[in-house]
Amino acid sequence: MTTSAATRHAELRNTLPPFALRPVAAITGLVSVVLVARADRYDYFGDELYFLSAGARLAFGYVDQGPLLPLLARCVDWIAPGSLVALRIPSIVAAVLAIVTAAASAREFGGGRIAQVLAALAYACCPFAITQSATLSTFALDATLVAVLIWLIVRWIRIRDDRLLIAATVVVALDLQVKLLAPVLGAGIAIGVMIFGPRDLLRRPALWFGAAFSLATVLPGLGWQARHGWPQLAMGATIRAEQQAATGGIAGLPMQLAMLTGIGGFLAVVGIWALVRHSALRPYRFIVVAVVVQSGFVLVTGTRAYYVAGLLPVLFAAGAVWAQAREFSRWEKATGITMAALAATIAVAVVFLLPVSSGALDRPTNTQSELSTRMRVFGSSGWSELTASVDAAYRTIDLGARAHTVIVTQTYWAASVLDRLGSPDLPPIYSPNRGFAYFGKPSETDTTVLYVAADAAEPLLRQTFWDVRPLKRLDDRLGFPGINRNIVIWRCDRSIRPWAETWPHLITNVLDPGI
């Protein structure tokens, strides 16, 4: 680096306003206390139990996520067995870090104390941050890792320090162990840089070294996918169908995005506009292209709206910097303050009022859309009823037959419940559903199966076993579909064909709750 270049970079480092440490620390501290205090109000979410089950069967790959979440779940369960609070600490840390990243992004854009605090508050009060911290999930970690990656690139553009690209490599490598979505974001960033610059970024050796390193870290997971027939690709259609049933699919995306951002969505929209029009933010216009590419991916594939959530901190930051630089009328200031207060009020209400007790349920859950709403408002339920019923059914089997008995469940949620919360005396548990299907199948010596499935599964069971009879029914009218409503515990004896032939025909990615 030449002397003049070094001088320029030193000046750039010193031109930023100071980080608003005290107010941002106050926001993150308060949010952390509140989120930890409410961490165990929701019962286990089905996927959390699955991550715990997967953590007991560590592998380089899984059907719908990388190995990081199961590894985290295993470590947390080793440190604090059975603790819901401990299990959700990684997600809470991710949400808090995203708040800090929003403030830090505003500072990188040249925003002072007001802009940094506004960006931090916007993320702290957005509905996604509450959802992100509520359970251990892939999107909780993925969103924050994306936000940190964008911040690192923004900072590199300002100071041109290639050590930031090395740090970005580490972030991408971690994100690829959560989900395989990073290439979509990478494509958006690359296209944005090619269109708007700085194109020098694409010529940095550190960038290409990072890309090669990230690819190397994901090769074991890709190898697992290849050996198992690329099940993650097949999951795309399943996710699209689930989104269609639960949220209206593509037609429901605007509402889904509004529910992610809440009132803060106005600031995110302003942030997009500011990145295009505000002169101080023009060096970072690549972000707009990244937003378009990521949103286009969600639109074309019909997948989860929260795939764009990692871009919220930088958009809030851009909007906050624009707001700080603009002269507002008294009416505009009053409107802004009112909207901020309303956003904070809604966030506080959601945090303290949800989940609602399941005793408040007054009607059955009959559709996927109602089930999606129920999980947000009431959480999941019925775990203890399912485990007790399966245990009771198992006790009806005579001692001689128990040595050759296994449990098979229609859904991976039910398998995970029994695996993690069921009696330790239960026999081996299997499921041909989603990720659990790859944890193993019954052996040829397993002649009796307790099959946990819905009423509608009877024809399939009779095609699979010589003898099928119901032992116990769980059908609480207000119960949780697929767990303690419309569920039958069947006794199935003697598989018609060898398990090696039967199992592949049973495997499905569809999480069918029986509604």
Describe the fold and architecture.
The chain has helices at residues 3-14, 21-37, 46-55, 68-79, 84-108, 113-124, 127-134, 138-159, 163-176, 182-196, 205-227, 231-247, 253-261, 265-277, 286-301, 312-325, 330-353, 368-377, 383-395, 399-402, 412-421, 458-464, 499-506; strands at residues 405-409, 429-430, 448-453, 465-474, 487-495. Residues 1-10 have low confidence and may be disordered. It contains 23 helices and 5 strands. A 5-stranded mixed beta sheet has the order 2-1-3-5-4. α3 packs across α4 (68-79), α10 (182-196) packs across α15 (286-301) and α12 packs across α18.
What average pLDDT do the residues reach?
91
What share of the residues lie within helices?
Answer: 55-70%
Adjacency order of strands in the biggest sheet: 2-1-3-5-4
Number of strands: 5
Number of helices: 23
Tell me the major beta sheet: 5 strands, mixed
The shape is globular
**Residue windows where pLDDT falls under 50 for at least 5 positions:** 1-10
Structural class estimated from helices and strands: alpha/beta
Per DSSP, what share of the residues sits in E-state strands of 2 or more residues?
5-15%
Measured on Cα atoms, how large is the radius of gyration?
25 Å
Determine the N-to-C terminus distance.
65 Å
The topology string of helices and strands comes to: HHHHHHHHHHHHHHHHHHHHEHEEHEEH
